Amino acid sequence: MVGIKHRLLVGKQILIIDDQSQLLSLMRRILEDEQYQVSILQNGKDGFSLMKTLLPDLLILDLKLGDVSGKDVLKQVKEDAITAEIPVIVYTAAVLEAEEVASMIASDPELYQGVHLVHKPFELEDLLALLEQVLNEPVH
């Protein structure tokens, strides 16, 4: 059963937006080893336009980006009819940022449906488990 479920996830496209190149490279390598198609972007300002172009199965988004706020990218993604259904895993080490995003999700759970918040540091196994769970969730 696990093999069948894993095969269903093979080839799923994931976009990762993070301003830290080492983390991007590591996550790309790990996810490609898991047979995902991975695109990476090191700046947030182009994040939304790339989302609309790629229409990935999942966005993994750091909230602390150098050039723009990950919260702004998240808001754009969820407010646009073309990208609104795409699930998002957001992560941050910043407690305040995490609280702000948790508050955004709580204030409009329908708009932010499919958004999952992860605190850094995180275990890669936990992220992979969440990723698999999110990619298996039915789109509403």
Keywords summarizing the entry:
globular; 46% helix; 18% strand; Rossmann fold; 140 residues; alpha/beta; disordered N terminus; 5 strands; 6 helices; 5-stranded parallel sheet
Provide an overview of this structure.
By secondary structure, this protein is an alpha/beta fold. It has a single domain, classed as Rossmann fold. Helix content is 46%, strand content 18%. The protein is built from 6 helices and 5 strands; from the N terminus they run αβαβαβαβαβα. A 5-stranded parallel sheet has the order 2-1-3-4-5, with helices on both faces. Strand 4, helix 5 and strand 5 form a beta-alpha-beta unit. The longest helix is centred in the N-terminal third of the chain and has 13 residues, at 21-33. The chain starts with a helix and ends with a helix. 24% of the residues are buried. Residues 1-7 have low confidence and may be disordered.
